[in-house]
Amino acid sequence: MGKHSFFNRISEEWDQHLKEKDFSSVQKMLAHFSFSPHEKVLDVGAGTGIVYPYLRDLGVSDYQALEPSEGMARVFLKKHPEAKIRVVEFEEDDTPAACFDKIFIFNAFPHFKDFELVFQKSYRALKATGILVICHSMSREELNAYHKKASKVVAEDVLPAQDVMTSLFTNAGFVDVQIENTNWYFASGSKAPFKEEV
Ligand SMILES: C[S@@+](CC[C@H](N)C(=O)[O-])C[C@H]1O[C@@H](n2cnc3c(N)ncnc32)[C@H](O)[C@@H]1O
């Protein structure tokens, strides 16, 4: 079974499996930042839309979700019909350059097929000083063990080691890279100020 079929199949029951820690991790992730109403935020691998309501409540009005599973996107839109969502893989998307202030990838990164491309696309899509965040409600070790047990389809979807993750950020041009791997996982990097697009 392919990954999108897998997420389509589990989409209707996805929300029932979410735990309090998932919601508190979204809140903790967003608490790192201040948001102004005119900011543009991209939520990649948005699933059924668990990050969106918190951003909306923080006053973010320019929100865009990307989600390749039609099933997940359908549930997302049932819950949040007013939100903007595009059904596409990030690696395949024509995301415009220098457009977003923040990009969040919450509980989704290990499922992506081309990590380097995800960083390159994120860097390009961010405005100068924009921030990319990769966050999980578990530590790297817990998450990798969880995927091994969850299903053959995601068994090999692992969060890279800290040195690999740091290189992914820095090779794409990100600065101020921070990685915390404790009872959750939080990695962020900023686009350098005033950098010209290539
Ligand atoms: C574990 S779910 C998490 C969804 C949501 N972020 C949440 O926390 O509930 C991972 C999501 O990443 C999406 N995904 C997988 N590959 C992707 C890709 N290449 N680009 C964007 N999203 C992807 C899946 O379809 C799935 O909905």
Number of helices: 8
Overall helicity: 25-40%
Oligomeric state of this protein:
single chain
CATH topology title = Rossmann fold
Secondary structure category: alpha/beta
Instruction: Give the distance, in angstroms, between the N- and C-terminal Cα atoms.
Output: 37 Å
Largest sheet: 7 strands, mixed
- Placed side by side, the strands forming the largest sheet appear as 3-2-1-4-5-7-6
Q: Give the total of domains.
A: 1
What's the mean pLDDT score? 95
Report the count of strand segments: 7
CATH architecture: 3-Layer(aba) Sandwich
Overall geometry comes to: globular
Following the backbone from N to C, one meets helices and strands in this order, namely: HHHEHEHEEHEHHEE
- What's the CATH first level? Alpha Beta
How does this model look, in words?
The protein has about 200 residues and is α/β, with parallel strands linked by helices. It has one domain: Rossmann fold. It has helices spanning about 5-10, 15, 20-30, 50-55, 70-80, 115-125, 140-150, 160-170; strands spanning about 40-45, 60-65, 85, 100-105, 125-135, 175-180, 185-190. It has a seven-stranded mixed β-sheet with strand order 3-2-1-4-5-7-6, sandwiched between helices. β1 (about 40-45), α4 (about 50-55) and β2 form a beta-alpha-beta unit. The chain binds S-adenosylmethionine. S-adenosylmethionine (SAM) binds next to α1.
